Structures are given as C-alpha cells and as structure tokens.
Amino acid sequence: AAFEGVFPCKPCTDKYFNPYLGRYGDCIDLNQGDILRKFYEATSISGAWKGDVNWADESIHECRYTGVICDNSGHVISINLQGRGLTGTIPEEIGFLQYLQVLNLADNQLEGFVPSDLRWAPLQELDISGNKLRGIIPPGLCLKPNVNGNGDRGDYNCARFACPIRTYSSTGWYDGDTSICKPCYGNMPYLGQKVCASSMARGTVKGPTLSKSLVPIFVGVTAFVVVMVSIGLASLVHKIRTRRREAELVGMSPNKIGVSSLPGSETVDLNSRYRIDNDDE
Predict the structure, then answer these.
(1) Maximum CA extent, the chain
(2) Distances (CA, A) of 134 to 42, 76, 89, 159, 194
(3) How crowded is residue 64: how many other Cβ atoms within 10 Å of its Cβ?
(4) Could you tell me which of 116, 118, 250, 263 has the fewest CB atoms within 10 Å of its CB?
(5) Adjacent-strand bridge partners of 44
(6) Using one digit for the tens of pLDDT, what is the confidence trace for 183-199?
C-alpha cells in the first residue's frame, strides 16, 4: 500500500493484507478483534443495538460477543445479528474475517451498498435481507460458489444473495426452490425485500403504476391536450361552414354567361344581344 496509491509502496506485514493494486492508505487489518470493533462502530450510528449486547465492552473477548460463534481455535466462524437494530453501513473489513462461514444481518436498518469484499470470506450462508441496502450485488460476489447454494449445477445467480430492487420473496433471496424473487411495482428501492408493499403483487403482473407525485402533472397535461383538440375541431368546423356559405353565394350570383363578375364587367343575356345585332343588320 502507499499514501497515494503509487510509488513508493510499502509491503503489508503478516497481520495485514491487500488484495488490490494501487491501494492508498494502510493495508487491511486482519486481526478479528479489530475487524469486529470496526464493524460495531459502523453499524451503531444511531446508538447501541437492541437487546442485551456486549460488543462495546472492550474487556470481553470477541468470541463472547453477542451473536458470535468461534471454533475451538478461537476463530470467528459465525455472526448472527438478525433484528438487533443495526444502523449504518456494512464495512468492507467484515469480508476479511478469514474463517467466517455464516453472516446474518437480516431485518435491521442497514443502508448503503453491499461491499464486494464479502467475497474474500469463506461464507456458506449470507442473509442481508430486510434492510435498506441499495444498488446491486457486486458481480464478484455473484460468482462466489457455495454461498446459499450459489453455483449449484452451474447456476451462479446474484439473487442467491438478495432479491434485486423491485422484487421480493419470502426470505428476501432466491433459494433455488420455493423462495423465488417475484416482481413488485410498488415503492421497492431496496435489495432483499421480503414483502411487497404494492397490491399489484397479487394476480397477473401488470405494467408499472404512476407515481403519486406525477398524478397532478399527468392530469394537467391531459386537460391541456383535450382543450387544444377541442379548439382545433371548433376551428375546423368554422372553416368548413365558411366555405359552404361562400359556395352558396357564388351559386346565387346573376352572372348568366359564366364570365367573372369583375368590376366593369356586365351581365348580359346573350340571346337578347344576338337579336339586337340581327335587327340592326
């Protein structure tokens, strides 16, 4: 790593790691205690979590933290904090727990985006449903096998991690069997939703609904179009009637010889004029 991401670069020591080119700042701390403390800081923005939680007690070993399970070697292998009232974002550091197999952060108030660094952990189960996470599942994470059955029979599916925005399922993700991500055209801007707030989820899927904020604009535009069409039709009818009246007046003109009634022209009966000429002869 380097201060500006370029030469001169410093090698990472044994307790630190960097999987990326051009990383600026420090290498990533691999100490699981430090990672969990950073995780608690990032997910308690609105205050302490719900229930009997001891993560803020620095005198307690991380293997005794609420919702944490370690193996016999003291490595964190499972974190279950479902419904604990977590607020904030998921820090990238959580993906560098080298033995983490289960991560359950469902039904909290987490925001932001899903960190792509989760792909570095040896996860087998991941549940981030029921939060306020936006965007998409990172492509690198979508290609990670064995997480929630991802990669079974060659099927690598981002929905295995969380249903996309404007979709939902009973679990918030696709389990490859009964829990399928279904479309929902309501206000669903988040990943991994378990219910659809729109009544359109029932029955045949139809087109998207009109946002409430656009209703006044839609009504105004519709009224304007109706008024303009009405004015256009009235003008067209007026022109047609005017032309008919002009045609009728032309038909009633006393011009008997078909000569235009221009100024100075005379209306003459050709028969009488022909008789006068003969008499003179």
Answers:
(1) 145
(2) 17, 27, 11, 14, 15
(3) 10
(4) 263
(5) 87
(6) 998 778 999 999 987 54
